């Protein structure tokens, strides 16, 4: 049996992992706590750790895992900005789940947009209270509007298809535009200037951090709707708040927040909110926040469990790790993973 310690476990995660662990030869120890320098010793004696978006897999944590004999970090998500990939090179292999349901995330982005622009969240509360007034609920048609999509990978493309189904024009920006995709690519400033709706579907990297900042907001149309289902730090939150106050930003739909790691996924309803920036955001009538929920469908959870466990089993039993990532992979074709199916 391969022993794996799973951090930041929630009840909805366990169902899929319990179902598929034994058939992949993996014995999973579940921990509710996140992985960080204080909790890393819980992985002692394990072959692998299974981590999620807000586990802090810093260089200290990687070196502690390495010292205790852990050989594999299995991300049960696509993004890996929380892992010091460079520090892990030569010490611990890293695998991820590159895609588990692009539909889940793209559909959530559209759900947030529709909820926000048609004021469904307000209408729901009103009618529950027998208030059938329509004052203040005026929205706008999506049909005929221009959606600007940043990042045209798996999720971005599904979102583009959904927007087209609504009769919207779609323009897009990607550092690697996809030839023959039928997507109308524009420059980033052109996207900011011409979009009624901007949806972020690129990863968080040094280049994309605060891609939405004061400068980019200044270029946008008045009343623009911004949707972020990717990573919080793509948006400079203070700049967003300033744009909302100036009435430049009409709607902000946020499934992620740059300081989410100690707040999201937990019930904080009995506590005083220490994060004043988030408190200010939530007080805005045109801001809709969900708690990094876009991935949360039955289909996605099942795919996450199956692929994570197969990644672990492939690594330890077959030596083939098609979902491995390393900092060298970014320098293709030089990464040794090209030849050996393992990055070092
Ligand atoms: P993907 O890897 O298929 O596509 C990402 C696209 O972004 C690629 O086409 C890439 O060329 C592009 N890109 C990279 N750097 C860029 C830059 N500087 N400017 C513009 N485009 C750039 O990834 P996928 O599966 O579509 O996921 C996108 C993001 O969604 C992930 O990185 C992750 O952060 C987020 N995500 C959020 C979830 C949630 O529950 N809220 C769940 C899953 C993913």
Concise description?
By secondary structure, this protein is α/β, with parallel strands linked by helices. The protein is built from twelve helices and 13 strands. It has helices at residues 11-21, 59-67, 85-88, 102-117, 120-128, 154-165, 188-194, 214-219, 237-245, 276-283, 298-318, 337-340, and strands at 2-6, 26-30, 48-51, 72-75, 93-95, 146-150, 169-173, 184-185, 197-200, 224-228, 249-254, 287-289, 324-325.
Mind explaining what this structure looks like?
There is one protein chain. This protein is α/β, with parallel strands linked by helices. The chain has twelve helices and 13 strands. Helix 1 crosses helix 11 and helix 4 crosses helix 6. The relative contact order is 0.14. The mean pLDDT is 95. It binds 1,4-dihydronicotinamide adenine dinucleotide (NAI). The site of 1,4-dihydronicotinamide adenine dinucleotide has 31 residues, from helix 4 and helix 6.
Task: Summarize the helices and strands and which ones pair or pack.
Blueprint: E1 2-6, H1 11-21, E2 26-30, E3 48-51, H2 59-67, E4 72-75, H3 85-88, E5 93-95, H4 102-117, H5 120-128, E6 146-150, H6 154-165, E7 169-173, E8 184-185, H7 188-194, E9 197-200, H8 214-219, E10 224-228, H9 237-245, E11 249-254, H10 276-283, E12 287-289, H11 298-318, E13 324-325, H12 337-340
Parallel strand pairs: 1-2, 1-3, 3-4, 4-5, 6-7, 6-9, 7-8, 9-10, 10-11, 11-12
Antiparallel strand pairs: 5-13
Helix pairs in contact: 1-11, 4-6
The structure holds 1,4-dihydronicotinamide adenine dinucleotide (NAI).
């Amino acid at each position: 049996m391969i022993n794996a310690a799973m951090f930041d476990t929630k009840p909805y995660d366990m169902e899929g992992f319990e179902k598929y662990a034994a058939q992949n030869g993996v014995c999973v120890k579940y921990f509710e706590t996140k992985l960080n320098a204080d909790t890393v010793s819980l992985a002692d004696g394990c072959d692998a750790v299974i981590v999620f978006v807000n586990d802090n897999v810093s260089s200290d944590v990687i070196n502690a895992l390495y010292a205790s004999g852990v050989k594999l970090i299995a991300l049960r998500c696509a993004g890996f900005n929380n892992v010091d990939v460079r520090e892990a090179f030569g010490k611990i292999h890293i695998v991820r789940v590159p895609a588990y349901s692009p539909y889940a995330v793209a559909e959530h982005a559209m759900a947030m947009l529709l909820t926000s622009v048609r004021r469904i969240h307000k209408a729901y509360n009103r009618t529950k209270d027998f208030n059938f007034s329509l004052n203040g609920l005026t929205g706008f048609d999506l049909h005929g509007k221009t959606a600007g999509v940043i990042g045209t990978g798996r999720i971005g493309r599904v979102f583009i298809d959904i927007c087209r189904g609504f009769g919207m024009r779609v323009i897009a920006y990607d550092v690697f535009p996809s030839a023959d995709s039928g997507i109308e690519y524009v420059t980033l400033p052109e996207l900011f200037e011409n979009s009624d709706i901007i949806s972020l579907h690129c990863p968080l990297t040094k280049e994309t951090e605060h891609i939405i900042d004061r400068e980019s907001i200044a270029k946008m149309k008045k009343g623009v709707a911004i949707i972020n289902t990717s990573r919080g730090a793509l948006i400079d939150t203070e700049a967003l708040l300033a744009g909302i106050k100036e009435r430049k930003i009409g709607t902000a739909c946020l499934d992620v927040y740059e300081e989410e790691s100690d707040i999201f996924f937990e019930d904080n309803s009995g506590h005083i909110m220490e994060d004043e920036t988030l408190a200010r955001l939530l007080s805005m009538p045109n801001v809709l926040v969900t708690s990094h929920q876009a991935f949360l469908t039955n289909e996605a959870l099942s795919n996450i469990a199956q692929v994570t466990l197969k990644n672990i089993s492939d690594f330890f039993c077959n030596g083939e790790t098609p979902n491995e990532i390393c900092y060298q992979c970014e320098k293709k074709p030089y990464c040794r993973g090209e030849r050996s199916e393992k990055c070092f």
